[in-house]
Specification:
The protein is an alpha+beta fold. The protein is 51% helix and 17% strand. The two termini are 34 Å apart.
């Protein structure tokens, strides 16, 4: 059932409009047909009743010898009058609503005579009963295919003979007709077209909001949304632009603050380095110089981290296969074991190339440095590129897989100060990847080692 319901707001709105209008149209047609049927019965009944009452009155008041001549003169192709000793309507059946309407329209024109029997029959059914001083009797005819029904009325005369009338009467138009079907089709097409235009105009700002939200996750300095359209859309666009501006100001203030702190730390570190040279104890001097060197690296890494290069560099279309190949070659040239298995010739990709190369370099180098050997695989999907980086190291405890992305976090059993790591490599890598709208997932392999999966959506 869920598969039949459209997933988009535009599709669901259009479906509700079409179903609602189709039902209302069908109900309106049914009411129209019912009212028209009642009107036909009333109008035809009055006309037929007037004719029957006039002829019946003449025959009843004329001598028996003149009745047949009057019946012949009153008859024509559409209105037939006959005399008989027995009524042609014999079978009795319950009265229907339509026949009751017809009966009432006929009786109102007849003279009120006691003990007169009244029998009525149409091409579909006949009715009977006792109405006041009149007995109402009916029969049945199975010929219901005619569009014009023959109405047969039998009235008893004072001498127990019968006068019979056969007149045509229009049938009500059926509800499920070709005319109704064409009306429904025309209405649905018109509603579908007009509703599709209106719904598209109303839902287009929502799609614009979705694209702006995705763009904001990649570039906080993206152009603001146009504040146009209905009042609610303008208010929402204005609120979104204010939010984007506040986020941009917050990030810029944070970056400037951290950059200023890191920059200002350079001066006292330099002074401390100079003063350390006057320490006479060689062992203490070397330890102090090593600590100062670590501090300089942390300050330098922090400055690089807060510059947020991924958001400042313009987007460019590059061959992603070539980019990852260069990263692997550079790390191999540095003395690490890296294997890149490439099954793709070219993969065009829009990105910030310098920043993305830096992120991938951090990830592959970490795998090669702490996992003995790194293997890199590419997987292309319709909407994303997956990079699998596998190593042969000891892996990471499950409860600490997320901790490695924290700034300045070190795993004691895999990193030490001698390796030169500052604990920002993974942090910077994930920041850059997320700036491209992607993410990094770490998981331990059953056969040993760690696998890093980088998911980069195609921009």
């Amino acid at each position: 059932m869920k598969k039949l319901i459209p997933d988009s707001i535009a599709g669901r709105t259009l479906l509700v409009l079409i179903i609602g209008l189709a039902l209302s149209h069908a109900i309106s047609i049914a009411m129209y047909v019912s009212d028209r049927s009642n009107a036909l019965v009333s109008i035809d009944g009055r006309h037929i009743g007037d004719q029957i009452a006039t002829v019946e009155r003449l025959i009843r008041k004329s001598p028996k010898t003149d009745r047949q001549r009057i019946a012949n003169l009153a008859s024509d192709a559409a209105f037939k009058v006959s005399l008989s000793e027995q009524s042609s309507i014999e079978k009795v059946q319950e009265i229907s609503r339509r026949e009751m309407q017809l009966r009432d329209s006929l009786i109102i024109h007849l003279d009120d005579i006691d003990n007169r029997e009244f029998r009525l029959k149409n091409s579909k059914s006949a009715v009977s009963g006792l109405i006041g001083g009149m007995a109402l009797v009916s029969g049945e005819n199975n010929d219901s295919s005619k569009e014009v029904n023959d109405i047969i009325v039998s009235l008893s005369l004072p001498d127990k003979s019968w006068v019979n009338f056969t007149v045509p009467m229009r049938s009500a138009e059926p509800l499920w007709s070709i005319r109704f079907g064409l009306s429904m089709v025309v209405m649905l097409i018109a509603v579908a077209v007009l509703s599709a235009i209106v719904v598209h105009q109303l839902t287009r700002p929502l799609a614009r909001f979705a694209r702006a939200s995705q763009r904001l996750g990649i570039d906080v300095a993206a152009p603001p949304l146009p504040e146009s359209g209905p009042l609610e859309i303008r208010q929402a666009a204005q609120a979104f632009n204010q939010m984007q501006n506040r986020i941009r100001i917050f990030i810029e203030d944070r970056t400037q603050m951290i950059a200023a702190i890191s920059h200002d730390l350079g001066t006292p570190i330099a002074r401390m380095r100079l003063r350390t040279e006057f320490v006479e104890d060689d062992e203490q001097r070397n330890k102090m110089l090593a600590d100062l060197k670590d501090m300089e690296k942390m300050v330098s890494s922090t400055l690089s981290f807060v510059r947020d290069e991924a958001k400042r560099e313009p987007l460019e279309k590059v061959d992603f296969t070539t980019l990852i190949q260069r990263v692997c070659d550079d790390i191999s040239d540095a003395g690490f074991q890296v294997l890149f298995e490439n099954e793709f010739k070219t993969i065009p990709y829009n990105c910030h190339p310098t920043a993305l190369r830096r992120a991938l370099n951090n990830l592959v180098e970490n795998a090669a440095r702490y996992g003995k050997e790194a293997q890199v695989f590419l997987q292309e999907k319709p909407n994303a590129i997956l990079i699998h980086i596998v190593d042969c190291g000891p892996g990471i405890p499950e409860d600490r897989l997320e901790d490695v992305f924290k700034p300045f976090y070190r795993l004691e059993n895999s990193r030490s100060r001698e390796t030169g790591g500052t604990g920002l490599g993974m942090t910077v890598a994930r920041t850059i990847v997320r700036a491209h709208g992607g993410d990094i997932v770490l998981k331990n392999r059953e056969e040993g080692g760690l696998e890093m999966v980088v998911n980069l959506p195609k921009l």
